[in-house]
Automatic annotation (TrEMBL), chain A:
Cofactor(s) required for function per UniProt: thiamine diphosphate
Keyword Oxidoreductase: yes
The protein's name in its UniProt record: Acetoin dehydrogenase E1 subunit alpha
Top-level lineage group: Bacteria
Record organism: candidate division TA06 bacterium 34_109
TrEMBL record, chain B:
Superkingdom, natural source: Bacteria
Pfam families noted in UniProt: Transket_pyr, Transketolase_C
Domain Transketolase-like pyrimidine-binding: 4-179
Cofactor(s) the protein requires to work: thiamine diphosphate
Protein's UniProt name: Acetoin dehydrogenase E1 component beta subunit
Record's keyword terms, sorted: Oxidoreductase, Thiamine pyrophosphate
Gene Ontology molecular functions: oxidoreductase activity
């Protein structure tokens, strides 16, 4: 595939945006502005930016707990994603969900679920609805290597294949669940996604830090799904730079391992070097994009910080349709 | 006496039981090398090794299935489900298997497993990491439910749970893990099915468990300044229910407020209310009241979560209402 300059620019910008976004979330979580805990996707930007570029706004997206970037690129006003993480009234779900439950039905972000694995069967339903309504919309579901332990993954794959559901499985293999490595707890650690073959679902193992490769593979799989050929599993090999959550010392993994991924396999550095080498962009042009993304983030941050907290009574709204719940 | 945190007290109970009985083993997500998401199993893997401290993948149904099978085969599993909310992913194993094994085998097989799990709100973790699940299990004959509120009881009740031949759901409120308290060094048991009177009083009875015990105690403290003497009962075991302790108190006070942080409708404490109604009606001087979470999922933002959760003021209001009834 020969990517246009515009596409390459967008991929680069979106990765940088996710990087800076996560840095701000990390900083403000540590400063105590963000309640609860946040799972950062720093280091995995290419997986999110690459797949999202292959999707349309009407495609269903099931981000997981480590998917701020997916939510950011889904089409939601970005400042409302950050405001949600801050638990503000202006957050995309009014502060009721936070980092793990960023949703937006307008752009079909179905990210309400923090029970790992559950999305792997819920996604069948949206894909089925698209098939039912003949809309050609695809459902993309993001999940980790750790979540491959859950039975729903396999119940889901079996039906998805049998019914030829338009699903893009995005298996983000960052080698760890929380502290357990793939090889510690999985019976076939080489390529986790090979399991899909048992259900007649094609799988592809891709360098998840190569945004172009991710984008191309996702585009191919999405096309296949749109044309009624059924699901594909993309296994994206990557690494989370941070611990399980912001502030996790992650003592369970060797420092050298983290360093290698940061220094030698940074997805942003990698695209940057390629773009400069190919003379697609100059370093100055790319620096300018970095600066623009920082400015965009500053705008989001200001919005999130200045937004009010939700009114307490919001806590009991929308439990039922057309029915109120007794408050205090 | 020596002080330990609630979390360390549980850790010590696990360690001492593993030391005492080779049949005891621990399994769950990240329980081995990392020592658990909340650090509760820290050190056990180093001491007892891979055979007895098992890291599993994210596989709640398998964790509880293994526990059931191993228990039937004579081992004594202590399974950890990281957050109580995830128990639903292995719910079938508990409801349809653990609870019914002794019955189905006509009394010839027991299922002596313990499922430890972190429950409760107040952690700003939203609706999939905040629930309090005892009511989900109450309507399932065959299960014990234990819910300590102090480090002393955490250790003693866990040891008793491991040694008991019934399947036990052992609830650990995540906001109590850091709480310090006196804990004897030697192994000891706190008898299952026995409540404890945390404060004596004659005007009304507050019945609570886990973190809600502290809210009840604070409310009782404030009410005593207005000369209302409230008795506070810490249930400690939610099933089987210590009717004697409850009835003794009701006979004395004739007024009851039940406190629990789960939603009101279908709340665990409703069972207590009905039990008192059936067996102690003539002692009641006022309707039995509840102070609970609201009938909604637990939202994320602190203001929303706070509104969902019961507060000391709610307890004080209800006590005053029934005292003046
Ligand atoms: C059913 C269920 N079990 C356990 C958890 C706790 N938990 C959340 S994320 C996680 C690890 C997930 O690993 P992986 O799928 O590889 O995603 P990663 O964090 O690496 O992005 C665990 C154990 C959960 N949320 N849901
Ligand atoms: Mg992972």
């Amino acid at each position: 595939m020969n990517l246009s300059k515009e596409t390459l620019k967008e991929l680069y910008y979106n990765m940088v945006l996710i990087r800076h976004f996560e840095e701000v979330v990390d900083e403000y979580a540590k400063k105590g502005y963000i309640p609860g805990f946040v799972h950062l996707s720093t280091g995995q930007e290419a997986c999110q930016a690459g797949v999202m570029k292959a999707l349309k706004e009407t495609d269903y997206k099931f981000p997981d707990h480590r998917s701020h970037g997916v939510c950011l690129l889904a089409g939601t006003p970005k400042e409302r994603v950050l405001a949600e993480i801050f638990g503000k009234k202006t957050g995309i779900s009014g502060g009721r969900g936070g980092s793990m439950h960023i949703i937006d039905i307008k752009c079909r972000n179905m990210g309400f679920n923090a029970i790992q694995g559950a999305n792997l069967v819920t996604c069948l339903g949206t894909a089925f609805a698209s098939q039912y309504n003949n809309t050609q919309d695809v459902t993309a579901v993001f999940f980790g290597d750790g979540t491959m332990g859950r039975g729903e993954v396999y119940e889901g794959m079996n039906i998805a294949a049998k019914w030829k559901l338009p699903i893009l499985y995005v298996l983000v293999n960052n080698r760890y669940a929380i502290s357990t490595r793939v090889e510690d707890v999985h019976s076939y650690p080489e390529n986790l996604s090979d399991r899909a073959q048992g259900y007649c679902i094609p799988n592809e193992v891709i360098d998840g830090n190569d945004v172009i490769a991710v984008y191309e593979a996702a585009s191919k799989a999405v096309k296949r799904a749109r044309e009624g050929e059924g699901p594909t599993v993309l296994e994206l090999l990557t690494y989370r730079w941070q611990g399980m959550f912001s502030g996790d010392p992650a003592a369970y993994r060797p420092k050298e391992e983290v360093e290698i991924w940061k220094e030698e396999r940074c997805p942003i550095k990698r695209l940057r070097e390629k773009l400069v080498q190919d003379k697609t962009f100059t370093t100055e042009e790319l620096d300018k994009l970095n600066k623009e993304s920082l400015e965009e983030i500053q705008g989001m941050l200001k919005y999130a910080l200045e937004s009010p907290e939700p009114e307490p009574e919001e806590a009991i709204k929308h439990v039922y349709v057309g029915r109120e719940v007794q408050g205090r | 006496m020596r002080k330990l945190s609630f979390g360390k007290a549980i850790n010590e109970a696990l360690d001492q039981e593993m030391e005492r009985d080779e049949k005891v083993f621990v399994l769950g997500e990240d329980v081995a090398k990392m020592g658990g998401d909340f650090g509760i199993t820290r050190g056990l893997w180093k001491k007892y090794g891979d055979k007895r401290v098992k890291d599993t993948p994210l596989s709640e149904a398998a964790i509880l299935g293994i526990a059931n099978g191993a228990a039937m085969a004579g081992l004594r599993p202590v399974a950890e489900i990281m957050f109580a909310d995830f128990i639903t992913e292995g719910y079938d194993q508990l409801v349809n298997n653990s609870a019914k094994i002794h019955f189905m085998f006509n009394g010839t097989v027991t299922c002596p497993l313990v499922v430890r799990t972190a429950n409760g709100a107040g952690f700003h973790a939203a609706y999939h990491h905040s629930q309090t699940p005892e009511a989900w299990f109450l309507n399932v004959p065959g299960l014990y439910i234990v819910a300590p509120s102090t480090p002393y009881e955490a250790k003693g009740l866990l040891i008793a749970s491991i040694r008991d031949d019934n399947p036990v759901i052992f609830l650990e409120h995540k906001l109590l893990y850091e709480m310090e308290g006196e804990v004897p060094e030697e192994p000891y048991m706190v008898e299952l099915g026995k409540a404890r009177v945390r404060k004596e009083g004659k005007d009304a009875t507050l019945i609570a468990s886990q973190r809600m015990v502290y809210l009840a105690l604070e409310a009782a403290e404030e009410l005593s300044k207005e000369d209302i003497q409230v008795e506070v009962i810490d249930l400690r075991t939610l099933f089987p229910l210590d009717k004697d302790a409850i009835f003794d108190s009701v006979a004395k006070t004739g007024r009851v407020v039940l406190v629990n942080e789960a939603p009101k409708t279908g709340n665990y404490v409703n069972e207590i209310s009905q039990t008192i109604n059936e067996e102690m009606f003539e002692f009641l001087k006022a309707p039995i009241k509840r102070v609970t979470g609201l009938d909604a999922p637990t939202a994320f933002a602190p203001k929303l979560e706070e509104y969902y959760l019961p507060h000391k003021e709610d307890i004080i209001r209800e006590v005053k209402e029934i005292v003046e009834y």
